[in-house]
Amino acid sequence: LFGMVTELYSTQDDKEFDKLFERIKKGEDISDKMENEIGKYLGDIGTAHLSDETKQTIRLMMREIGEMESIGDSCFNLARIMRRKRSNKVWFKDSLNDGILKMYATVDEALSQMNRVLGGHRADFTVETSFEIEHRINALRDSLKDQNVASLDNKEYSYELGTVLSDLIAECEKTGDYVMNVVEARLGLS
User: N or C: which terminal CB in the chain sees fewer CB atoms within 10 Å?
Assistant: First the structure.
């Protein structure tokens, strides 16, 4: 879904935009259904007589699927913000585009690392790589927010543009938080 979100950001054609937006919406709906199906299955397993270790593993898996569904929600939220940006004819200058694209690339890096952790053996991974990426997402969020506030104070662009920018930045950072939560659950941390 996030790959489609980044594609949506640069889509110029209205029909392509609408088509891609609907695909993201459908993907988010599928993530909701998957969370419910997997959650129900894990819940059913959890009613059996299980060891404490197995019960803990199931709790961590439940957390993983909940956070993955939140990633789907966040992707759809990003798509909705971009639809609002488009319908209100809010256009970013190159420097703002560069900042958003850098944020997207960093979130994509976090998602790629998450997928590596999910696809591998827990013992082969530590949380440090994901923490480092999360730290860069947060630092980029802080930098972009500070730039946005300064630009709004200097009346370099409209409040509406500043709000759209702020919403995109905040939602990307939330996505990074959900990704970090998945990694922590997969690695058996808090």
Answer: C
Give yes or no for residue 190 having a pLDDT over 70. no
Q: How many C-beta neighbours within 10 Å does residue 151 have?
A: 17
Contact 79, 21 (CB under 8 A): yes
φ, ψ dihedrals at 189, nearest 5°: -100, 145
The string of DSSP codes covering 106-149 is HHHHHHHHHHHHHHS-GGG--SHHHHHHHHHHHHHHHHHHHHHH
Distances (CA, A) of 91 to 9, 86, 157: 11, 8, 10
Candidates 21, 25, 6; CA nearest to 97 is 6
Give yes or no for a contact between 65 and 35, defined as CB atoms under 8 angstroms apart.
yes
Q: Does this model's pTM top 0.85?
A: yes
Q: Would you tell me how many other CB atoms lie within 10 Å of the CB of residue 127?
A: 15
Percent helix, strand and coil across the chain, each to the nearest 5: 85, 0, 15
pLDDT at 138 > cutoff 80: yes
Under 8 Å between Cβ of 169 and 102: no
Chain centre to alpha carbon of residue 44: 29
Query: Where does the pLDDT of residue 50 fall: very low under 50, low under 70, confident under 90, or very high at 90 and above?
Result: confident
Measured distance CA(176)–CA(107) in Å, rounded = 6
